[in-house]
Amino acid sequence: MNKYLSFFKIRLTNGLQYRGAAWAGVATQFVWGGMTLLMFRAFYQNGENSLPMTFPELSSYIWLQQGFLALYMAWYFDNDIFNSITSGNIAYELCRPIDLYAMWFVKNMAVRLSRAILRCFPILIVAVFLPKPFNISLPCTPVAGLMFIISLILGFLVLVAFSMLIYISVFYTLSSLGIRILTTSVVEFLGGAIIPLPFFPQKLQTLVMLLPFASMQNTPFQIYNGYIASSEILKSVLFQIIWLGILLKLGKLLMQQALKKVVVQGG
Amino acid sequence: MNLYWKYASIILRSQMQYKVSFIMSAVGQFLVSFTTFLGVYFMFSRFNSVKGFTFSEVLLCFAVILTSFSLAECFVRGFDAFSGIISNGEFDRIMVRPRNEILQVLASRIEFSRIGRLLQALVMFAYAIPASRVDWTFDKILTLIFMLAGGIIVFSGLFIIYASLCFFTIEGLEFMNIFTDGGREFGRYPFSVYGEGVLKFLTFVIPLALFQYYPFIYLIGKSDNTCYMFLPLVGMLFIIPCLIFWRIGVRHYQSTGS
Amino acid sequence: MIELKNINKTFKVAKRNAGLSEAVKALLRKEYSYIQALRDVSFTIKDGEMVGYIGPNGAGKSSTIKIMSGILTPDSGECSINGKTPWQERIAHVREIGVVFGQRSQLWWDVPVADSFELIKDIYKVDDTAFKRNLDELTELLDISEIIRTPARQLSLGQRMRCEIAASLLHSPKILFLDEPTIGLDAVSKIAVRKFIKTLNSERKTTVILTTHDMQDIEALTERILLIGKGKILLDGSLRELKKRNSSHKRLTVDFVGILAEAGKGMSFTENLDGHAEIVLDTEVISVSEAIAQISRQVEINDISVTGATAEEMVVSLYKEFEI
Predicted ipTM? Predict the structure, then answer.
């Protein structure tokens, strides 16, 4: 456990070194969130009454999205991992006494977590003090707040577990290029990063909610802002746990298969 | 200019050495902008219009911004990748050659796979040009051409600023993405959608609205002001301060060497 | 004619301290330190000369080369190359110089070398006849006519370096800067490159300025060396003079049984391992026979030989002498 912790510490120190980048990142995401909200407001000004989300719900959603962007960014992949697989250097890694799946998992978590920790507080704090209805509201109930944190972590794990599948797939395709671009756009879109999932057409929405992508950022953010009713919270968190279990199991299984293949081929 | 095409031809030959990777990137570019398009489509399947603009009008606007962005990005990529060009010493090589640095930087990277994004833009044009119910007279066609040309120049200017900043710092450049990637992403809706303040900023500070909002409302007949047709040409002047800033950056590079 | 007079250059570097708490501090405040890269550097190089520019890493070699090629502006001092100030008339100046950066490539990775040459022809606006004549001559001298149809990525390091050198000479520059041209090359390629540089200098009368860590390059090529350390020119003279100055240095190679202590005035060990030692003697401090006597008191000598010190060793002792 200790080696994973020190790995995380290195990442965090590394991230802190680049203070300019950290501040610029915060400012960029802030403007991005603001512009997104202004766009939605323009649509809301039509005065239609069958709105999928209320505007305060939407505000909270967008700010959480910006604050925790680093946790759920779909475009981030660790190039070292891809390179070690395609170049065959993976053979060296296998000589070390570590569980490769766990190692990669933690590496990915560390990068995302260290970036998110640096950036989420300034964004969320400023967002609290924005004028209504553009501000982020507090969680609707204390229970929702607690469940939000649990669900935030679960969603994060689901995303990392999913991206592990992408790394593993490179054992078979030997080129990361196509699959990376494909997953980035699919995860972003079906995860609710482009527009929140409630804005999807009804039939599609029912289907999309069943996919693992909805269990990433969508679930925690919608718990926080009260879009997911308190009676439904347990159900959606349970859904996250199920997906996490499936993805972890699948990842480990495929990894085992892939490594067997590497050993047989001699790297 | 002749030299630029020579560079382009050598880069095209290089990229064709990796055909699979080229096609994959192009398909990826298409997909990414396609999901953005789907986002717009889903919004309009719930709402009829936004600030009085209909779906086909917004698509026209989206296509203009996507076309000019992807063309600018395709040909001015050298500036986008500039921090790498500095850190691997390529810029030193550029400096010891008897040609204008801008031309050499421009020509050193051309990303033909951006064609994927362009394709998405062309599909939208194909739908929106007839559907927007614009009466395509000569001045409307000219307006559209001005918009595209203005967009290419303004985005190129932004890329040049981005590159010039690399001379001073490699940190904090992420902020420029608000204007480049942000310009593309938020420019899919006419800028008036974001309110008066944003529109003013994008008119007088970073002149994205000069080739988007104003000529656009003239194009779709929401305004009769013929002046709006020529605003993209005014927007092109934006390139001048960008080039001056670049010169300052080169000076700085010569005095620090890093 | 290259003339540098009292060139000074200082760089400002941001301090980066290790540790998490230091990093947090750096978020708020940054500290800088100043490094004087060049102090009062002056020298003159005549047309057609070949000069070796040596010094340890970070001594200021590449800063000087950058100033002479117009990439860097000094804080003070004058530099005139063929009557032009490089950083003021960059474009006119660089037309007359060629630069080879040993560790970076100017060839396009994925296309045949000949295509890169064509592009360089257009960049320098070389006319067709001059280009053809030049290309024929260079491909013959460098023995690359067989390989210029191959993409650069498929070439060996030695082949690629020969192409790099050809690429830097297509526009017939009067001055050639070579920054570590033999780094990483195998023995055969090194010799080929050196032979070519020699021919270039003697036949085309091209002025050559060569930076290198390989003393064999210096020994094979240059009459004159410039030694720089900590930003200052420490020595400007011929290799022969340097050798004379160091004729008191001898090199002792010993094979022995036992353990040899690395001690003794005037003896510096460059190697001492498993019964084999290499020692540089300063004969003004200790005579050869005295040294052998000292050694034989400690160990049983199987074999011993005495030779004059190599250029490499002379430079090491120079570095020691100037404490750089």
Answer: 0.90
